[in-house]
Amino acid sequence: MESLLSLAFDNLSSYDGVKIRKGLKQVEGLLAQICLSGPNNKKSAAAAPTEPARDGESPPRKVLADLGGDPAFREFFKLQDGFEWNIAQRLLPTLDWLVARGGDGQYDLLVVNALDLIQGVLLLHPPSKVLFSRSMHMNLLLDLIEPVNCPAVQCATIITLVVALLDSPQNTRVFERLDGLLTITSLFKDNEMPREVRFKLTEFLYFYLTPETPSIPKADGRGNGVAAQGGGGGLLQRSPSKLAKVFGRSNQMDGRERPTSESSATLSVEAKKQYVDRYLPGVVDQLLKDLDTYKPFGGILS
């Protein structure tokens, strides 16, 4: 796995669009192997019996509960805990370079591809979210939401932003401090915003107005790993994370202990409602009503 990541990182760090595309494909292939069941994966087949994949069809996805017994996933997770092999850490500079080369359709496709991979890495390795506690990385996402970018890039960025903030109150506070909520609501009020982007913005507001999961500072932090590189400490999430159950431990990275308390790291729904109401007066109550009535995202945020 280290050899494959080394090749991918070499391509991602180049200044050649063709090599960057190849690096993104290599990372995508690695994540696909982790997320998809092989034809001989008897455990997955027993847990979720499905018909064999037909020619041209993708193999079935692995059930998250099965990952605990997957040596490849365990090795992947272990590698992501360190700075040297962390994929998100390598994708962010590549994304920044692609954005600087913007205005070209081929680079837009690569930007969307890189954002999709960042989403996948953050979901498979939640501790990597600590990278977005840094203003430079959060600002990169906020820049990509701006109307100067194509709708596909805007939509992919909004999804990535949701993943980066999910169960990460410290990242949400960074987002707010950088006037991210002003950016989102300004675009929401723009009548010329494409329909698909407006829909994603509405979804983001639904997400933002849901209760936050408190975080507890790690008791025995050590100053290494991606958390230290990201400028924040590893956090023990209270949410009933499936990945935590898989490993029998918290989803955290080694890093410095955070000085902030739970109460200062999280905000109540009422407080966030007041924030949104500053920019979208009269809209918040309807958003909360819709959230309670229609239960978007399958009700998992309710």
Description:
This protein has 16 helices and 2 strands. By secondary structure, it is mainly α. It has one domain (2-38, 59-294). The chain has a two-stranded antiparallel sheet. The radius of gyration is 20 Å and the shape is globular. It starts with a helix and ends in an 8-residue tail after the last helix. Residues 222-235 have a biased composition (Gly residues).
Which SSEs are present, and which pair or pack?
Blueprint: H1 2-12, H2 17-35, H3 42-47, H4 71-80, H5 87-100, H6 105-124, H7 135-145, H8 151-165, H9 169-177, H10 180-189, H11 195-208, E1 215-217, H12 225-230, E2 235-237, H13 242-247, H14 262-265, H15 269-279, H16 284-294
Keywords:
302 residues, mainly alpha, globular, two-stranded antiparallel ribbon
Helix content: 55-70%
Structural class by helix and strand composition: mainly alpha
Number of domains: 1
- The percent range for strand residues is under 5%
Element-by-element helix/strand order:
HHHHHHHHHHHEHEHHHH
Alpha-carbon Rg, integer? 20 Å
* Low-confidence parts: 39-53, 216-224, 231-242, 244-263
